[in-house]
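Archive entry. Fields below.
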Amino acid sequence: MSNIKERYAIVGVGESERSKNSGTTPLHLALDAARAAIGDAGLSPKDIDGFMSYSENDSCTSHQLATYLGVRPKYVKDILGGGSSTEMLVADAIGLIETGQVNTVLIFRSMNGRSGVRMGGGGWDVDMLQSAIDGGSFIIPYGAGSPSQWFGLFATRHMYETGLTKEHLGHVCVSFYEHAQRNPKAYFYGKPLTMEEYLNTPNLSSPFNKHDFCLESDEANAIIVTSAERAKLCKSRPAYIMGIAARQCVSHAHYWSNLSEVASDYVAAEVYKMAGVKPEDLHVASIYDCYSWVVLRQLEAFGIAPRGEVGDFVAEGNLRMGGRLPSNTAGGMLSEGYTHGMNNVLEIVRQIRHDYKGTERQVDNCEIGLCTGWAGPDIAGAMILRN
Amino acid sequence: MDYQKPIPLKNQDNQPYWDGADRHELLIQTCESCHQYAHPPGPACAKCGSTELSWENFGSDIKGTIYSFVVSYRPFLPGFQNDLPLIIAIVELEKATTVRLIGNIQECNPDDVKIGMPVKMTWVDITDDRALPHWIPAP
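PREDICTED_STRUCTURE:
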């Protein structure tokens, strides 16, 4: 296997407007995001010869997007998937470029996640859910139809074993909401959260209250991946990919037989090895945050704090600006917006490029960043970027 | 009144479990090759891939302890709007501690539920010919 460390880069990032009701189609949103990313890279649409997307059957296709950018692509791919799809598609793009099949790939996620198909539920056909989910007959008849409940079962046990408390979950939320106050495009810009308010908010499904849940938003995000050689021709500063773990799994989980490991535990070893870095080398992070607890479990998986000490780590303010590892600095999916992880990728690229230099949003002198993806306890990915 | 909640759908992998439940018996799939329990049941053992599978009948007197739980205050599926707050737990079987089942804890104050709490299986007839196992606190 050839070593791809730092031979590929993310050279463009872009997004559409973010709203609760876009009033338009995922294709329009995707075009806005794609044009923004192409402009960011200083490329023309015809420089893109591969297009990829992920969705939950709630988007447009890569072929449609390419068509309306006026491009004849050499490669299109649309996968079903949520969290950790971005990392997997970046890895797939590298493979295609490495084997000479394409030169430059645009990856997008477009969704009317609030006004259209909502992940938060409502409108699901219960017999479809039972059949679609492995082991569905053992959970759906008991009212367990939401990831908040499935992940909550992991969270309750993990918190019991490691001493994490509700207040520790709150530190994740409060830290990320604080970041959102520096991001005028964040959903919760102008709506900071105090620990008192957090602790006084009733649970929707224990151990989670509404602040522990990610948002639902209408928006599209896009990123562009190319080789380090081609990156030199772009106007943007490349975010070089030091290491990537496309997608690791533990056995399908819904979810009860093994709560003591998650796929991220395996991702961490792979991504650090390829990148040749250690947890203490990281300066900034985007940690998949569909729920607050998922962040805490990943901090443990990625060795950012030892098991049993993750609560202290977040309570000391280490996810905040000036902390040990400022994370989800646009507000994350808890308070910026939600595209199954890609908005967190956009942010870490911008941090690594020092796009915010001279403002309070910039993590000072950040050179190396970790970006994680989490489809569930059973499927995860990650990449490490540097400037 | 008709039962409003989702009823377990039988398929070729889970049918012995749900047929057993209808008779108020707990059947757990086991692997003849690696001699481990295979729950949830599937077309092959998820631990070793073997298709040499059989079913062990644990009878109707089932005890366990709560391994983890959530308390939901909002119905995330239709039919549960009158069951709030709803306790969903993972229960570890007393006679097979590697087997963990998801179920609701009934007749229990949500403030009292905790990990390690002993519970007992109870069988609820939900239609003329279907039954669903639940759990209640053990005395």
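CURATOR_NOTE: Residues 87 and 201 of chain A are 34 Å apart (CA to CA).
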